[in-house]
Specification:
Layout lengths: L3 E6 L6 H16 L3 E6 L23 H10 L3 E5 H6 L11 E4 L1 H8 L5 E3 L1
Parallel strand pairs: 1-2, 1-5, 2-3, 3-4
Length: 120
Amino acid sequence: MSKKFCVSLTCSLDNPDKATVAFVVANAAAASDKETLVFLSTEGVLLSQRGSAERIHESGFAPLAELMGNFVKAGGKIWVCSPCFKKRNLDEGKLVPGATIVGGAKLVEFLGDGSPAITY
């Protein structure tokens, strides 16, 4: 069984429910001693910017900013799709803690051993 787990997140402010649940699942994986990665792509890259997650708090869940912070504290990694980031003219100086801009090859390498992945 793989010791890695990937959550791919393609939304943010456009679907706060999915964005929140993605980080709930990512936190569960990180708590299970899995090397856990959240890959932000398309609209999901907006969450890489400080202040974006603070705008999301779905009823019944912890605020998204808190979920993201807990995920990073648990050793989780947040990878941000480079082309998606550039397309949206986002600011590298405003990246949230734990976020790294990467290309698709890096994600393919992470998943190369057959690691499970789920997409929101």
